[in-house]
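Consider the following assembly input.
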Amino acid sequence: MEKQIVYKVPGGKLLKISLSFDETTHKIKDIMISGDFFAYPEESIEDLEQVLKEKVLDAKELQDVIGSFIKDHDVEFIGVDASTLTDAILEALA
Amino acid sequence: MTETWRLLLTGDHSAKENMAIDKAILVAHSKGLVPPTVRFYRWRPSAISIGYFQRLSEEVDLASCDAHGIDYVRRITGGGAVFHEDELTYSIVVSESHPSIPKHILESYGLICQAIIEGFSVLNIPSDYAPINDILVKGKKISGNAQTRKLRTVLQHGTILMDVDVDKMFSVLKVPNEKIKDKLITNVKERVTSLRHVKGEHISFDTVADAMKQGFERTFNVTLEEGVITEDELQLSEGFVKDCFGNDSWNHMR
């Protein structure tokens, strides 16, 4: 299933997410996270998108995966964080 | 003794050249080839720049850009889509290890925006920093800013709106929902201002540039001395136009 998500982050930034996932298993097949936020280093967003593949659309799993990614890769997000990214991605099931 | 930084006045350039020059200064400074640099510039033709994380086809009406002769380019910095027409654009490049640069990214946004706020005060315009990356006059946005850090070097660039044609801006920017386009345009007209609007008259680019120069000098306690772009930077910049900013694979990357 394909979903286009537009999610207004508290604080003002806008996340736009293109997502395809398996309807039965809820596993992410492909994801692109775009928007007007900031991330340092910028290129880490592509790595995060890779890491999210095959992960299940579940609040705890996503929050853990994104949180560890930020910590392990020393990434700094400004305008979004693990929790808002998780909420935005989960809009796919709303 | 006051430190001397370089001031570059590079005039008008296309979108891909402007973004390539900023990146070239960053790389040259990271190699110790040029001093910390503040640059003022303009965009000819008018252009849209999109943030690193944005999707070009989602933000920009490419057919309308082509019809109006408007350029577009992806920046190396995050943030939103910007329509560059009647504005002064600045960039600042300085090493992360420079004593005046805060380690914390948000703090360094605040400090560099302070230079722009000082510049507005030279023009007798009170303005406020609105974190993360905006500057407001009487509650309306007049400046947007975006920073990247690469090669242990800070690059922040931003716009100072001199005049704004919101209708023209929306003829080339896409909106998520066409049905609310008119309302959105009204909203943006209420939320965005320009030097022309604030002062009630046209202020020349040179006047604004001089004010912003003083703003950077006061904020960083440096003297800005006008210099030229080096041969190294020109070569780097030509390479970046060819391999990056003038290239569909970069601009359509996301």
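The beta strands of chain A are 2-8, 14-21, 28-35, 38-40, 76-78. Ask yourself how this observation constrains the way the partners meet.
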